[in-house]
Specification:
Structural class: mainly beta
Helix content: 10-25%
Number of strands: 17
Number of helices: 3
C-alpha cells in the first residue's frame, strides 16, 4: 500500500507540471483591441498541427512508460471572431490504470496573436474529478479574469480579478513560449509569465538555458535544441519544475520535457507530429 501511494503521488505531481508547460469558452465581454498588449506574433505553428508524446516515470532507477499525451491546434471562431482552438489530452495506460486513473482534457481559445480568451481544464485523478475555467476580457487596457472552479464534491466557486499586467494559463503560456525570438536571449535571461488557474495566480517565469544537441529516446534522431526552465517562486524559494527542449528552428517544437518532482523525476518525449508550419530544420542528419 505504501508503494502504491508513492506511485500515486508521483503521477499526480508529474501530470500537473507536464500540463502546466505543454501541453491552453467564453469571455463575459467581447474582447477589445486591448487584448493585443497580451499577444505575440505567431510564426511557430498553424491550424492543423498535431503533436503526440509518450510519458515516462523513473521508478526505482527504471524508466517506465505510463501514458500518452496529444495536442492539436485548429483555426476556429470565438464570439464571431477568428481564433485558435487548442486542446491537450493526457491518458494513463492500462498499467497505470491498475494503480491510478489519469484522464485530463484541456482546452483554450486565443485570438490570432495568441492573447488568451478562454481556458478549461477537466481532470480525473483517481476517483476525483474537477473543472477549472477562465474567461478573459481586456477593459481599459487591463486583464480581467473571471474564474470558475467545480470541486470534486460538485460545489461551484467563482472569483473575479483585474490586473494591469497580462495573465496566462497552462495552455496559452505554451503557445506563447513557442514564439519567443531566442536570438535576442542570453543564457540566464528570465521571462516573467504569471499563470492563473481557477483560484490563484502563480509567480512564475521562464529561464533561458542556452542551446544543446538532444538525442531522442528509442530512436537515433537528434535535434538542435534550445533549453528553457519553468520556475515558480513559493514560500520564499525558487523551484525549477520543468526543463524543456524546443527545436532550434522556426517551429520551436517541444521534443522533450524533464519534470522535477517531490518523489522523483518524469519525462515526456515527442513521438510524432504533422501539420507543422515550418520545415524541421533542426534535425541533425
Amino acid at each position: 500500500m505504501k508503494t502504491n501511494n508513492m506511485i500515486k503521488s508521483k503521477i499526480i505531481n508529474s501530470r500537473m507540471w507536464m500540463v502546466a508547460i505543454l501541453f491552453t469558452i467564453h469571455c463575459s465581454l467581447f474582447t477589445s483591441s486591448s487584448a493585443a498588449q497580451c499577444g505575440i506574433e505567431n510564426n511557430a505553428f498553424k491550424s492543423g498541427e498535431f503533436l503526440a508524446y509518450d510519458l515516462y516515470f523513473n521508478w526505482k532507477f527504471v524508466w517506465v512508460k505510463v501514458g500518452t499525451a496529444s495536442m492539436s491546434t485548429v483555426k476556429s471562431r470565438y464570439q464571431g471572431e477568428p481564433a485558435y482552438r487548442s486542446s491537450l489530452i493526457t491518458r494513463g495506460n492500462d498499467k497505470l490504470d491498475n494503480v491510478f486513473v489519469m484522464r485530463d482534457t484541456l482546452l483554450c481559445y486565443t485570438d490570432m496573436d495568441i492573447a488568451p480568451l478562454y481556458f478549461r481544464k477537466g481532470a480525473r485523478e483517481g476517483s476525483r474529478y474537477y473543472v477549472d475555467e477562465l474567461w478573459y476580457s481586456y477593459p481599459k487596457g487591463n486583464c480581467h479574469l473571471k474564474q470558475h472552479a467545480i470541486a470534486s464534491s460538485g460545489e461551484h466557486y467563482w472569483k473575479e480579478s483585474e490586473y494591469k499586467d497580462c495573465i496566462y494559463d497552462m495552455m496559452t503560456i505554451y503557445l506563447r513560449a513557442r514564439n519567443f525570438d531566442a536570438s535576442k536571449l542570453k543564457e540566464g535571461d528570465k521571462i516573467p509569465l504569471p499563470i492563473a488557474d481557477a483560484s490563484n495566480i502563480s509567480n512564475s517565469w521562464l529561464k533561458f538555458g542556452g542551446a544543446t544537441t538532444l538525442k531522442m529516446k528509442n530512436s537515433n534522431d537528434k535535434y538542435r535544441c534550445l533549453v528553457f526552465s519553468f520556475i515558480e517562486r513559493e514560500n520564499g524559494e525558487n523551484h525549477e519544475l520543468i526543463r524543456f527542449y524546443v527545436t532550434d528552428d522556426k517551429n520551436h517544437l517541444p521534443v522533450r520535457l524533464d519534470m522535477f518532482l517531490s518523489f522523483g523525476s518524469a519525462k515526456a518525449y515527442l513521438t510524432g507530429f504533422k501539420g507543422l508550419r515550418n520545415p524541421m530544420e533542426s534535425k541533425v542528419e
